[in-house]
Specification:
heterodimer; A: 246 residues; alpha/beta; Rossmann fold; 8-stranded mixed β-sheet; 7 helices; 9 strands; B: 422 residues; alpha+beta; Phosphorylase Kinase, domain 1; Transferase(Phosphotransferase), domain 1; Tumour Suppressor Smad4; 6-stranded antiparallel β-sheet; 24 strands; 25% helix
Chain lengths: 246, 422
């Protein structure tokens, strides 16, 4: 047998994409429906990016938070193996607890135990309101977590009631917070943010100065120019939109 | 409207329109569509996030200057801008060519070392032609090369980021493939391209990355600042003889561990040279493409088919006994053609490359009447002339055969002449 028949895949790092989803009572109805629909549809796209990528494979983890915070699966899974269980809305907005939970898993004893190493994760936070618990403690734990510091962080604010300041605190800049005002925009932005951060996060970084975080923000900004009812948080002028959620 | 739909028409700068048939794929920069252009099927790359006017003008210039060689799938027509959006039209990539990344993921394998070496040659040639035209690559990575696994033919794609040397396209390559000085923020040029060429060739031959060894595996989270270290300021070649801190790891870097021992020493020594600290830090001392081609030609001269097991093997003709790298049996090197300083060993089914056009010119076969006798078949397009030891002149037409007999002198062309030793 030729030596060429024994070739194995190059070792790949793992890039984990985290969804942190607000499932509090105010998300009930078509907001949570849109989130469920969007994530189900984006998983095959993530699988395709992962399958053809010699730098890294992509895994997905999802955390929902309302009265408490809980993981959909007890470990990150390949997009192809991630069977999405529709999340339902009800209860409070325990963002602080969600941050503490994320902090625990962002460690080598938690979710970041890939044998051939990892790229920094990408974290997408979706929320339509303000935290109802002590989020400061949770966020300050995360801010000391090296995985979190290196992560790509994007927040999606759903509607005008989302607490932009809190989301900004989570991502570290107002540039990485995007606001959506209707169901269609919500679905589209979940796809754009998940695909973009996976594409950039799972590849060896670019030579040059732009960080992965900068690149994701730039690209998402460019793409949402074409989505009606989505905007970068830096140019907040929602007066021209009427919130329409039902 | 940034995305196009089947039936959408785009206007070309030279006049006329192309009609979108369907989407073929999408990447970070844009979408590639199958289009109809005057009855011909072509590909349209459409930018979702178009770069500025400088990029558009550069595309226009590249289209005017034309492809440096047939290895390039080059931009052929540019579209007019529609609300700032634009794209360019190029030839379709044939279905038997696969992205280099697929080879790294072991989804596609080279059919033979012969094909692998042909691919290496063709990539060197592409770089050489590009530099001869005054261009340099900006965003070089495993997505740029498409290879036919059975022949090793290569198509170089994504040539929209090719720029005149010294200029920056704004699209930056991946750290893993870029020279340390570019990783540190420098502008890509032909010297940094030559570094990237060494990385691509190494990955082609050994199917692992030259800087990814123990040190890199030990890094739990490859952040951007670590990447700048491991591929830039602190890059260490995995087989650096003076620094063993980054050796390949068993169970992780399997391909290079298996293949490194079997490739000819001249190739390995050269990689050690090209990835030495001295050349990492002194871009102008890196090997030029023509030198790579000469070296790969030598490696190819040492590749034969083993008469015992029928697999390809590299031979080290300087050793006392040449053994097959697969079955371990001794391979006789008694029969060969001498062409200048080259010795082409003759075993059944071995292909011979006489000139340097990267196409095999001769095939050694067993004589069907007497398998111990060998014949050489002319598989080139040119007639050869041979002179027997007694002075008779014979002509070998394309597809024709000649016997392997000592003392026969062959003129393959006006410049390359050989003599059979058997």
């Amino acid at each position: 047998m030729s030596l060429l028949d024994e070739v194995v895949s190059v070792p790949r790092r793992t890039m984990t994409l985290f969804f942190m989803i607000d499932t509090s009572g105010s998300m009930m109805g078509n907001k949570i429906g849109a989130v469920n629909d969007a994530v189900v549809n984006v998983l095959p796209m993530l699988d395709e990016i992962s399958e053809t990528n010699p730098d890294a494979e992509i895994k997905v983890a999802a955390l929902e938070f309302s009265n408490g915070a809980s993981w959909l699966y007890s470990e990150p899974k390949l997009a192809s193996e991630f069977v999405w269980q529709d999340v339902t809305a009800g209860g409070l907005t325990s963002l602080g607890e969600a941050c503490s939970e994320l902090n625990t898993k962002l460690s080598r004893s938690g979710f970041m135990q890939a044998a051939s190493g990892s790229f920094a994760p990408a974290i997408i936070l979706l929320s339509d309101g303000g935290p109802t618990d002590d989020y400061k403690t949770g966020i300050s734990k995360l801010k000391n977590n090296n995985w979190f510091k290196a992560a790509i962080k994007v927040a999606i604010a759903i509607g005008d009631d989302a607490d932009l300041k809190v989301l900004e605190e989570f991502t570290g800049s107002n540039e990485a917070v995007f606001t959506v005002h209707n169901i269609d925009a919500l679905k589209q932005i979940i796809r754009v943010v998940a695909v973009t951060s996976s594409q950039i996060g799972s590849k060896s970084s670019s030579a040059g100065d732009a960080t992965k975080q900068d690149q994701v923000v730039e690209e998402v900004k460019a793409q949402i120019e074409n989505i009606d009812g989505a905007e970068a948080a830096t140019q907040v002028d929602s007066s021209s939109y009427s919130d329409d959620w039902d | 409207m940034i995305e196009l739909k089947p039936g959408s028409k785009v206007d070309l700068t030279i006049g006329g329109q192309a009609t979108v048939i369907k989407e073929l794929g999408r990447g970070g920069q844009g979408i590639v569509y199958l289009v109809d252009l005057c009855g011909q099927k072509m590909a349209l790359k459409w930018y979702l996030n178009p770069l500025g006017d400088k990029f558009y003008k550069n595309l226009e210039k590249n289209i005017q200057s034309g492809a440096p060689s047939d290895a390039f799938i080059w931009p052929e027509y540019l579209t007019l801008k529609t609300k700032g959006y634009y794209g360019y039209i190029m030839k379709l990539r044939p279905a038997n060519y696969f992205e280099f990344g697929n080879f790294l993921l072991a989804k596609k394998n080279f059919k033979s070392f012969d094909a692998m070496l042909a691919a290496a040659m063709k990539i060197c040639d592409g770089f050489m032609m590009l530099h001869r035209f005054g261009f340099s690559y900006q965003d070089l990575n495993d997505g740029n090369f498409f290879i036919d696994p059975s022949t090793g033919d290569v198509l170089i794609c994504d040539n929209d980021n090719v720029m005149p040397q010294g200029e920056k396209s704004g699209i930056m390559g991946k750290a893993r493939y870029m020279a340390p000085e570019v990783v540190a923020g420098g502008i890509p040029d032909k010297y940094s391209d030559r570094f990237s060429l060494s990385v691509i060739l190494f990955m082609l031959f050994f199917a692992n990355h030259p800087f990814e060894g123990a040190k890199v595996v030990a890094c739990p989270c490859m952040t951007e600042s670590y990447e700048k270290k491991f591929y830039g300021s602190e890059a260490v070649f995995i087989y650096n003889p003076n620094d063993k801190s980054n050796l390949p790891v068993r169970g992780v870097h399997q391909n290079v561990i298996r293949r490194w021992p079997v490739f000819p020493a001249i190739l390995k020594d050269n990689f050690i040279q090209q990835f030495s600290q001295e050349k990492l830090k002194n871009p102008t001392t890196r090997m030029i493409e023509q030198e790579w081609q000469k070296l790969i030609a030598k490696v190819r001269d040492s590749l034969v088919v083993c008469p015992s097991c029928g697999e390809e093997t590299f031979l080290d003709t300087t050793s006392d006994e040449c053994k097959c790298m697969n079955c371990g049996k001794v391979v006789s090197i008694d029969r060969y053609i001498k062409i200048g300083s080259r010795s082409l060993i003759l075993t059944p089914n071995t292909k011979l490359y006489i000139d340097n056009d990267n196409v095999a010119d001769a095939l050694v076969v067993s004589n069907p009447q007497d398998p111990s006798m060998l014949l050489i078949q002319n598989i080139s397009g040119q007639k050869w002339t041979a002179e027997t030891p007694s002075g008779k002149i014979k002509e070998i037409e394309p597809k024709g055969f000649m016997p392997v007999k000592t003392g026969i002198k062959i003129s393959f062309s006006n410049i390359s002449k050989g003599e059979i030793i058997a």
